[in-house]
Amino acid sequence: MHPAFLPLPRRLLYALKPASWPKLLVPMAVGQVLGVMSSGTWSWGGAAVGVGFTAAMLCYLVLLNDWFDARVDAIKRQMFPDAGSPKTIPDAILHPQTVLLAGIGFGLVGASIALCGEIVTGRDGLALAGLMCLAMLPLYSAPPLRLNDRGTGELVEAAGVGVLLPWFNAYAQGGELVTRELLLVTPGLTALALASAIASGLADEDSDRAGGKATITTQLGNAAARDAIEYAVMAGAMLWAVAARVGQHHLSPFAFSAALAVLLWQWRGVAAIGPRAVTSAFTEISRYKERLHRALWGSALTLALALLLSRVLGVGP
Fold first, then answer.
1. pLDDT for 159-169, tens place per residue?
2. Is the pLDDT of residue 77 over 90?
3. Which of 229, 135, 169 is nearest to 26 (CA)?
4. Which of 196, 187, 133, 194 is nearest to 165 (CA)?
5. How far apart are CA 259 and CA 302, in angstroms?
6. Rounded to an integer, what distance in angstroms lies between the CA atom of residue 67 and that of residue 165?
7. Pairwise CA distance, residues 179 & 36, whole Å
């Protein structure tokens, strides 16, 4: 059944794109674990604030980004009517006003959670940190900047996913604004987030170009964009390897080793399908992105779980 004919709750769930949730949920988990590592204790209040804020932010980002991208999405549907999954607004799954109001509503919920979290947990400035995270979307999609249309959207996304969201969660959980743990982990995580951000534009190369949208893919082309993804992943792996050496007295190097092992193991599937993920090969691009995200977020989640396990078992520094 076409998603437009589903009941409203299922249409809303479809519009929220559950397959994309690990992009925020994994950095949230990394941030929560880093907060535990810095403070040495577990805060249920900090965990509740982090999870609630991240869930609201996820809905806010997905819906409002669809609303801002409706014009370009419509161009893609006209150019490739049988390619990819139905789009929220062009395929009438939700009314544009519903998408806009729901997105704004979730943004307000996220801001409220951050404010209440500051009051309840005593983390001064947590509400401001939450607003900084939420402000990434206007920079990314909204006029007058619309950085996602000007060739720098991938950098904004990488900063939000790789730095701001883990930092918010680490602060909510541990209560320290800047920690060694954050400085060691987030550079590599940011590089992986950049790879994911670049991959998001692969399937939209022709329609983005037709709509006047500048992304790394439209500017460099499909092959160069895939090269950039590989370089970003390599940079992330190298940064985590350096962090394991430099931070061996603060974080277990075995946790980084486990994360890198997962990344390299999963990369086999990415490398195998990469040469077939060419322009407008939508099925192959979808498989490429699926395997890439499995490698990126699987390794990051492994790092978080291994660090937490090392803390629980008292293994390592």
1. 999 999 999 99
2. no
3. 169
4. 133
5. 5
6. 22
7. 11
